[in-house]
Amino acid sequence: MIALLTITLLLATAEVNSQTGTLDQSVCRLPAEVPNGPAVPQFDNIDHFEAYIECNMKDIGETIEVKEYYDSKEDRGTLDTIQYGQGIYLIYDYSVMQIYEIVQRTANENPVCRTQAMQSAAQNGVFGLNPGTGTSGHIFSVAQMFNLGTTGMRYAGVETVRGMPVHRFSLCTYWDQWQASIQADYYFSLPDYPNPYAWTNMIPVRITATGKATGPPHHRPGDPVNPSEVTWTEHPFDHTYEIFFFKPYVNDRTVFDIPA
Known about the structure:
The chain is mainly beta. The chain has helices spanning 2-13, 142-145, and strands at residues 48-57, 62-71, 76-83, 86-93, 98-104, 112-117, 130-131, 137-138, 154-161, 164-175, 180-189, 204-215, 233-247.
């Protein structure tokens, strides 16, 4: 389950800096650059946030509901997701370098819980892993999580998303782990556009990720899997991440607690 969420979420929300592979330029359809635009927001003043995201994988005709909770002060993060009718709860505890995965397959079944070492779990890229001393590590900053560096980022002007005026930034890059050529587009509300939290920063509204990646064949849980399908293949992807709210705080800190 962790590996599947990795493929669907990380292509847009994890650090995708260009590495050793070669970018397939055919995936890049960058808009014209608009001069004198605002700087890409870095969210340096945020150490907590709570977000609700609908992940729409248009290439495979599926959606995932994600509630994301982030706490850099206490080095922890949580993903509360629904996928294929199953509840999947992931708690990232950097103090012990563990990921706790709790799966509620049906309403009538007891949850199943397991742990994974963060260094060995593919999914650690959702909240990232900044190396610490020895075997320790720390959660990414918000800018790292959303790949909001300035290298290669292009300002594309003001557009409208869900009726809101937004700044658009575009990036074309290569991510070596999944041999993925990606165009990512980021949409942030204008700072003076009223929001429920009276926050004067740009707020993330939408992220899109399109391109080509290499990975295992796609299967829904319970589908028969052909044991001979061991070769990863290149496939196109087209993902839209609608961020329906982004609060610069977390109301309920119990979302980070490990269930008894």
